[in-house]
Design brief:
Elements lengths: L3 H4 L13 H11 L3 E6 L2 E7 H9 L26 H11 L3 E6 L2 E7 H7 L3 H12 L7
Antiparallel strand pairs: 1-2, 3-4
Protein name: CBS domain-containing protein
InterPro entries: CBS_dom, CBS_dom_sf, Diverse_CBS-Domain
Organism: Alteribacter lacisalsi
């Protein structure tokens, strides 16, 4: 069985908490991602997503110069590098998350996306289940 350290992306681009929304959006465009970890050094503080920028930034009329820390999500679910891929897929389905930061001794060491796990789950059925659970609206989640 594969563990997350076998499938995670280790070269993760981060933002600092005092980077602004514009800088975060430019990084998202440059790296073609929808979420970027927010770190001080290698210590994970939160994640900023394209949705955070829209919902907590633009929709609340915050300027592009607003600090990322003002709109980031800071209540994160993380995993350690030794977690089995199937367990991570199940956890992501239950918690309805698409990106899972991988932390070792409180340091960000990688990130795993839903797509990464769908490729590496032990059966196609598990990958389909994870995708359907994560994509389901919360009010119909079982």
């Amino acid at each position: 069985m594969k563990s997350l350290k076998d499938v995670m992306t280790t070269n993760v681009e981060c933002c600092a908490p005092d980077d602004n929304l514009y800088e975060a959006a430019v990084k998202m465009k440059k790296y073609d991602v929808g979420a970027i970890p927010v770190c001080e050094g290698d210590h994970l503080l939160g994640m900023v997503t394209d949705r955070d920028i829209v919902m907590r930034g633009v929709a609340e009329k915050r300027p592009n110069s607003c600090d990322v820390k003002e709109v980031m999500s800071d209540r994160l679910i993380t995993a350690d590098p030794g977690m089995i891929v199937d367990q991570a897929a199940q956890m992501m389905a239950e918690k309805q998350i698409r990106r899972l930061p991988i932390v070792d001794n409180q340091k960000l060491v990688g990130i795993v996306s839903l797509g990464d796990l769908a490729i590496h789950t032990s059966t196609t059925d598990e990958a389909i289940f994870a995708l359907s659970e994560i994509s389901e609206r919360p009010e119909v989640h079982h």
